[in-house]
Amino acid sequence: MIEWKPTFLIAWMLFVAAYLYVVGPLARRYGQMRDRGQVVAFMAGALVLLLALQSPLDYLAGHYLFSAHMLQHMLLAYAAAPLLLIGTPGWFLRPIVRRRALWPLARLLTRPLVALVVFNAVFTLYHMPALYIASLASEPLHALMHLLFLSTAVLTWWPIVSPLPDLPRLTYPLQMLYLAAQTVLSQPVGALVTLAGQPLYAPYAAAPRLLGLTALEDQQLGGLLLWVGGPLFFFCVLTVVFFRWALRHETGADVRA
Asked: Residue 253: what pLDDT?
């Protein structure tokens, strides 16, 4: 079952249309070449957004299963955010972030330590029972939290896939260190949720049971997605970065991404 959200669908279509205008007519006006790889990445990220926020997964997450909500969050943070960032042309971002009012803030928020702390702080606070339950009860707050979650996820991926030389990626060795830190910081919330001896989120405890899962089993499954799934994903990315660095190092090329 799908719970249609007209506001989200309209915003999503406008978002995609604006991007297609940027990489189409606007790019031609400014003599910029369209990068097909970027377009594919961005559209894939947009489709992940649609899957996460306007699909049966969203209905299950909002009404029945805590574990579905955790999968939704992982799709936003670990798939949609980096794909959208990879797909955004640097030539389009540069005049926006270089504005006098935005440049100091952009430099601050994309610093690796700041991006790391901001994302994981938002991630942790969002999953505290009081705020989490409040967001389930208020659609505007829920939408705001998802927007904040996605925005800070984009920040945390910036040191890895930045499209702007002005706000550059880390070197490969520092990327590996950064990703290692992510694997550590993404674990505590998942561990606490998984090891809790009772349901922490009342709306899911009171929801009709699906798939033969008790409320506690559903919570444990969701916690494991965070505790194991998130760090495993970051470790896989770290492995890719390592092999890219090793190849560059072997060929004598610059080890910067």
From this structure: 58
